[in-house]
Amino acid sequence: MNCKKCDSICIKNGFQTNGKQRYLCKYCNHNQQEVYTYNAYKKNTNEKIVKLIVNSCGIRDISRILTISKTTVISKTLKIAKSLQWPAFYETDQIYEADELSIKMKGMKYCYVSYIINRKTKFVISFCVGRRTNENMKNSIYQVLCLNPNRIYTDSLPNYKGLIPKEIHRARKYQTNTIERFHLSLRTHLKRLSRKTICFSKSIEMLEAVVNIYFWAFNTNQLYKKGKISLTL
Ligand SMILES: [Zn+2]
Predict the structure, then answer these.
(1) Distance 34 CA to ligand 1 centre (A)
(2) What pLDDT, on the 0 to 100 scale, is given for residue 23?
(3) Distance between Cα 179 and ligand 1 center (Å)
(4) What is the SS3 assignment for 147-195?
């Protein structure tokens, strides 16, 4: 039998408590069974979860489609979000747009996803989830300032005035159209962000994980279309 992780040869290594043969990979030291009864341990579960999340499936939908439990979907989602590696950006002298999107949380509380995209390439450079405070937003804006931007267009939120240098900051109407259109895609593709429904987020942690996965999938898909990388998780 071949390893499910690295595809090298496995040797027999005793039995599981349910009596099934256990195998040990000699290369990566990973114990495994040849056939699993529980769907969560099968190959490609993580890829499937990512694909379902970015195609407007909630936690319960994924749990029903893959026939695994809700808590497994939640823990796997958090784990995937932590392990993602974002592509590195090296572009300079570009034009960016920054905006924030309000989200209804449990108990009619509101939370914000603020993010910054490149107007030309449409890549999401950075994002932050939470209240709109300077403390929360400074990290994501700093990442863009590192790229030596030509100009950053925002709305008239006062926080941006303090965080972005005056020479490159513009707060004008109709100059954030690209990112406003991106909000629409986000609201359509992530179930918990859609408006006038009963879907909502319970915890900021989960919201951040799902938004992270969406932006990562969007960026890697863009790169994939340009033929720069192969699509792997
Ligand atoms: Zn292995």
Answers:
(1) 13
(2) 94
(3) 43
(4) CCCCEEEECCCHHHHHHCCCCCEEECCCCCHHHHHHHHHHHHHCHHHCC
